[in-house]
Prior knowledge:
There is one protein chain. This protein is of the alpha/beta class. The protein has helices spanning about 1-10, 60-70, 115-135, 145-150, 170-185, 195-205, 225-235, 250-260, 310-315, 335, 340-350, 395, 400-410; strands at about 15-20, 30-35, 40-50, 75-80, 85-90, 95-100, 110, 155-160, 165, 210-215, 240-245, 265-270, 280-285, 290-300, 305, 320-330, 350-360, 370-375, 385-390. An eight-stranded mixed sheet has the order 12-11-10-13-16-18-17-19, with helices on both faces. A hairpin with a 5-residue loop joins strand 8 (about 155-160) and strand 9. S-adenosylmethionine binds near residues 245, 271 and 272.
Amino acid sequence: MGDVRSRLRAAGYTLLQSEPRLEKLPNFRPDVLAWASNADGDLVPWAVVEVKNRLKQPEFALPALARSRDLMGTVEHYAVIDGEWFKADRGVRSLEPVDGPTPPAYGSQGRLTDEGLATSLLVQRLWFEANRLRDAGVRVGDGFPSGTILAETARPGIELPEGAFLPVRPDVLWRAKREALIEFASRGSSGSSSHPAVASAVAALVEKRLTGTVLDPFCGTGSFLWATLDRAADRGVQARFVGYEINPRLADLAAGIGHGAPSPVEIDKADAFRADFPAADVIVTAPPLHVRSEDRHALLNGSTTTDGEVAAVDRVLRALKAGGRAVFHLASGFTSAERHASYRTFLAREFRVAALIGLPRGALSGTGVRSVLVVIDRAEPSETFVAQLGEDWETQLEPEGAALSAALEFIDPAATPRVPGRP
Ligand SMILES: C[S@@+](CC[C@H](N)C(=O)[O-])C[C@H]1O[C@@H](n2cnc3c(N)ncnc32)[C@H](O)[C@@H]1O
């Protein structure tokens, strides 16, 4: 395999992958994949090489090569049998002996637009640096400067361990960096970030209200902030994103991610029960579960509680501006437990509880409890959209999913078109 890689390098390919794990094709691993620029200057999977020994006929490599073409759109297909190079015709039906690989038609200096590959290259880079430190006898723990290692480069791109520089489309790089930092920080454990399908639904639920300040007082790794930030960027809305997180490791991680974000981000390492929040136009948050405090929290309805979730909701709602919207991901007890009944009545009287979307076990990361998405507007009370989702909750909450679409239509009805001639 080493010889095949050096021949490809000599032909001008700079980005090579051996037996890559392809995110969308888990059961398919080509022997060597070489990326190169297409006519538009984007880096794409260009050449694939199947490396075999003692294969009776080179043609036996054709099905795997044809599969690469069908699944990845590769342009050049090679088989290397016992060190001899063969090249497939355009239709990948026959192989001809060749001296070696042909140089890529448009060079290899394209811009990477593949988020999965960018993420895995960034994770590889973090492991490369971590192993280097380990080899030097340094313990790689919570203080490992992942954010600094992936800090901004002069041009948007990735420094490969062997010294080459790979330009990456800026929006792809921003998403890949945050995925890589979170993946590296969780190092094989399931991590504490909210479920991506929940983060994406939360962002959709606040999309129409995005402006000014977006706050997550219990931001963890920041997944709600990042999903919302992406929505704002897609809509061309300028907003600032503010997070609070009490766990220093998670706060540093979120701050490291926020550093490369395309909008202003501030992450405060602070106790959200004591911090002074900025007035917020939008709040997106999943408060910690099962927190009971020794102090009783005074609630807006005049009562007191030691229940952390109710206290968190109450505290957070104080920061919500008139006309603003908050979306909470809470344990379902918030909407069902008898002990919270009077607080729920208070909320329904003083706010617009716009939607309650019940989710089954598995949606609230790291717990086995059922949960609920609660959408609250600081506005006049009105009807509430209510849904209880089942096992297909992820599909239901996809951007075009039935439950999410129905909820959005209810909470932000499309303006009725004006009839010409009528006021
Ligand atoms: C359910 S998790 C939020 C996960 C987050 N949405 C994410 O995707 O990473 C709750 C977070 O609140 C943090 N937290 C707990 N108590 C806190 C406090 N008093 N102030 C600020 N953050 C706190 C926890 O460390 C945890 O990261």
